[in-house]
Amino acid sequence: MTVQLVQLFRGLGIAIAIAGVIDPPVTSMRRTQPTVALVSSDAADSSLVDRVERELAPAYTIVRGPFEGAAAVVSVGDRLPGAIDTIPASMPAFAVTSATGAPGVRLSGVRAPARVMLDSRASMEARLQVEGRRGRTVDVTLSHGGVVIDRVTRQIATGEETMTAALTFAPTAEGAAALTLSAGTGDDRPRATADVLVDIRRTRWAVLAFDRRPSWMSTFVRRALESDPRFVVTSRVITSRDLSTDTGRPPGSLDDLPSLALFDAVVIGAPEELTDRDVSGLEAFLRRRGGAVCLLLDRRAAGPYDRLIGPMAWSAAATSAPAPIAGAGDDDRKDRPERILATELAWPSTLPPGAHALFSSEPPSNATATTTNAPARPIVWSTAIGGGRVIVSGALDAWRLRDTAAASFDRFWRTVIADAAAGAPPVVEIDVERPLLAPGASTEVTVTLRDETLADSEAGRPLRASVRIALDTPAGPVPVRAWPDGPPGRFRATVRAPETPGLYRLSITGNGTQVDTPVVVQSDVTRPSPDERALITAWTASRGGITVPAERSREIGQALDRKLSIETQRTTWHPMRSAWWIVPFALALGTEWWSRRRHGQA
Prior knowledge:
19% of the residues lie in helices and 39% in strands. By secondary structure, the protein is an alpha/beta fold. The chain folds into 5 domains: 2-25 and 574-598; 33-92 and 543-568, 3-Layer(aba) Sandwich (Rossmann fold), CATH 3.40.50; 104-199, Sandwich (Immunoglobulin-like); 205-422, 3-Layer(aba) Sandwich (Rossmann fold); 428-521, Immunoglobulin-like (Sandwich). Strands 14, 15, 16, 17, 18, 19, 20, 21, 22, 23 and 24 form an 11-stranded mixed β-sheet that branches. A 5-stranded parallel β-sheet has the order 3-2-4-5-34. A 5-stranded mixed β-sheet has the order 7-13-12-9-10, with no helix packed on it. Strand 30 and strand 31 (490-496) form a beta hairpin.
């Protein structure tokens, strides 16, 4: 029996060796394996992506990321993949989203300013989607360096609810502040979090006050701004034909756009005295610079400035008792304490298209009106011209009542001008898609040079727009190539984060103007997770595919089989070329040798 066993293993080893030398071909019918591209957003659950890949791998060749040569694409997660634009329109699309009805809180979006002035208050908004938590409360916190700086609690009224939570942040030091928004219901489920980067600067708004004649209204508004360290006020008041009182170095006229473009806002007293050239300069400032112009009326009279607000019918009223002017309509100012008083009012009978009231006044019972009064009179209102804003004040004598306890004249106008100036875009505008990055990750950067940076103020010739971008690192600046993108003066670049976590600065030089913005690299970055399942369903349906929740992910393979019409084909293959044959070959020879040694055979 032992001899037969030895001979059996010896014969098996010799047979494997002979088959390996001959290498016989084998012909069979095999199922083809089309290539499938597996894509996902940054916020997708990595475990779900891995699971879908394992389920499809036996029947398909899986390629992570977009691939033009793929037979189909499968998206995983509740967001459209970032590379959706690179996927051919003819490619069938399928998707796997998160599990349906899973209870929890999703932080679907965050709205936060990229830059905040030091010692100011920044508002942030968190958008939440809550499922399966009816009757509970959701707790939303904003923290900096692990310390909670604001908290909001909301009651969950239904089983599936979308809500917003407003939080505030008051910075006390300059630099890049990494903030964390967190939301949860207080149970053992993990909280939804999102990281936000805010650039805190000690910047000041540049304001030009320009009066063609002395105006008490403009004088006291200017004094209110000059006493606020957030503003740098330059002024010119023309007191006679060849005489003016200047503060700082104001432009000689309002039609000097290169000089006017240095300001974020222009405050005009006695606007009816403006000339046609003044109005043309202000219009160019609004359209090209995107700044703000505030017209402070102290009497209603027609003039060239009507071109900025449009021809319209005006109403006027004089009251014996001061009329309060406070927040109007649905504007968020209605709950704020800023208000002024006036006894002489002027307002448009009908606001021009696109305009909206900022502050309004209810008509008092003892008003003497020259025209029919509306129930709510828009006294301070705003309209848009190009990328800029025009703010018109019809509180003609509000300066007379500025010191009463019921009014907050200085704070009122500081708030109005600050909001207007903050909306003016910088001369060189930087938009970093994701300033908070993981090591080695990439982000898109868009640089926009305003129109006035593209003109030669001395020769009047257009300059060729140019921009230089560099990422400042401890080893020195790393140049970043920028490409023209869209209209003149707009550039796009892709910045790759260094592998070492830390704070870096992205420097941009455009036509002589240099600015910078922070880029923070940290090992763990969390982002909002918007729910785009409806968009994903429409996207896959338009491409002949389906969208299924995570618990039905196996249906994707069946749908792919039907869509791609998988066929079998005759294939010739060589089984002996597999490296695994070395295992039985070594086992057979080893067992034969061990058996002979055990029984004393040579």
